[in-house]
Amino acid sequence: MVLFSPLELDSITVENRIVKSATAESMADDDGFVTEKFVEFYKRLAEGGAGVAITGHMFVMDDGKAHRKMTGISRDEHVSSLKKMIEEVKKVNKTQILVAQISHAGRQGPFNPVAPSPIPDPVMKVTPRELTKEEIEEIIDSFGDAARRAEKAGFDAVQLHAAHGYLLSEFISPHTNRRKDEYGKERAKILLDIKERIDEKTRIPVLIKMNANDFIPGGLEIDEAMRIAKLLEKAGFEAIEVSGGMFESAHHTGYNVVCQNVSKSGEGYFKEFTKKIKEAVSIPVIAVGGIRSKAFAERLIKEGYADMVSMARPLIRDPYLPIRWMRNEIEASDCKSCNLCLRSVSMKELGCYSD
Fold this sequence. Notes:
Elements (H helix, E strand, L loop, with lengths): L6 E2 L4 E2 L3 E3 L15 H13 L3 E3 L3 E2 L19 H14 L4 E7 L10 E2 L13 E2 L2 H21 L3 E6 L4 H6 L9 H4 L3 H13 L4 E8 L8 H14 L4 E5 L4 H5 L8 H4 L5 H10 L4 E4 L5 H9 L5 E4 L1 H5 L3 H6 L13 H4 L12
Parallel strand pairs: 3-4, 3-13, 4-6, 5-6, 6-9, 7-8, 9-10, 10-11, 11-12, 12-13
Antiparallel strand pairs: 1-2
Helix pairs in contact: 1-2, 2-3, 3-6, 7-10
């Protein structure tokens, strides 16, 4: 079964094609240091057998937080608790690839809403302040430092969060980036600059999660996303996870684009976008979005939609789903797409709150 076959990236090898996609945990203290609940969450995922586990987004700057109890990687002091977590997880499953997702909230952050351009966000009810070029340089450097800390802590790779309307997503979207300088003329420039800065500071492999479509009038669409994907491959990114939507998308669509109800949308609701990106690049491409069954996950890989499959809600409900699939104990997750897990992260720790 191809789903449980290894895959070689440029710098790392994964033991199977199942990825735990990044989801905010809200399991850090007020300063961003991870708690024992965070460690136990990732130990269960390691026991569960996913080939790759990507953390929820970690803030690279103190004023770039997206929510309370968010994990930090903005200061050298954060390294020790992250290192302890990785040591504990590796005792459980030494072959699982651990990836730190690094992020800045941008205009979707409550503490310092900034963006490439001052475009009002009707969901957050804020008009962000436009970043200066000097501030952009500081942000680029902060991502580089965050990657250096991730390597020091023992992570196998980092993933830039350029999806879902956070700052890097805002830069590549023509809706939220209307700059006239070099960061507007080539909206992917910040991603390329961050990759270059990371390479200057560390040798850690770099993955990326990016939107293929913003689902907003005048936003990023698939043709532009394919062009950007080619630039990312050329720059040395090792894999692309393909997603879509941002907070504002719901204002136009009337539903949560990122976390759709699978009973209505069907499994793999971003699969056609993912296939387009895969056709544009030769590096591994990761499918995410409503994957629930082993047969469907296998088909996505066999039919050339993606090289790996990524899940969040099913693994929140049952972190042992991959090993249960491998043992033929179950064919599909019983996740109901109720989204109670995600709605709760601003108030309490990540977990399945469905009956």
